[in-house]
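ok so for the tutorial part 2 we go from a plain amino acid sequence to predicted structure tokens. step 1 is just haveing the sequence, like this:
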Amino acid sequence: MRVKCVLCDKIESIEDHSFQAKRLRNRPIHTYMCKECEARITEKTQKRLQSGNFKLYQSNVKEEEW
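step 2 — the prediction. this is what the tokens look like for a chain of 66 residues:
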């Protein structure tokens, strides 16, 4: 299956029967990102977390017990 990176528009091929290919076929909201872009974003996010200027907001979901 041929896929295109969302950020750099690089075209790559992935295995047709892989989990990622199935997810991309069945759910159009999921997008593909190449390994280089994914590594770059991960690295920059880690740097921002370590700098202290980046806050990750998480929702407070409380489960109700019946």
